[in-house]
Please model this.
Amino acid sequence: MQKKQVRLEDYSRKDINLLPKEYFNKKKLRYKALTISLTFILILSSASGYYYYLLNKIEKVNQEKIRVESRIKDLTRTRNEQDIFLALENRVDAKLNLLKSIEENNASLVIITSIVEKNLPKDITFLNMNSNSDGNITISGVSGSNASIAQFIHNLKETNFFGDVFVSNITKNNISGMSHYSFSLVCKYWRK
Model:
């Protein structure tokens, strides 16, 4: 066997450690502590950054929430105003319809009164006229004879504005030796 030749240059390249082993262990511990510290600082910095990012996001969401709530209040107020206007419009329409109905009834009343007066015999005095919700009209008056009442009924039927004309009541009265008849007629008015 041959012996390997050792050269001096080979020894110069080798590390010769004259320091104790604890020194190297402490050095390794310092590197580990430094690595852990840097990792902790990096994690803490990342967490802080993320925390401020989330705070910023929360602030933006809160501002958006306030804006949306304000818009909801505006829309609710607008909706309430629309409901009020709609209610007012309905009330105005109802009153307009009532006024139209009154106007039509007044026009009808004028027409009815005119027709009744034109068809009254000379010895009948027209006293009162009423109507009810069924469309019946009651005409009350005083006549000098039954024949005049019969003539009045005939005249009303001939106008074709009145139907179902009948006497509901006739009462004979004597005042100062003169006879007269109080009567009530019931009829229906047919609008044309």
Q: What stands out?
A: The chain has three helices and four strands. Residues 144 and 176 are 14 Å apart (CA to CA).
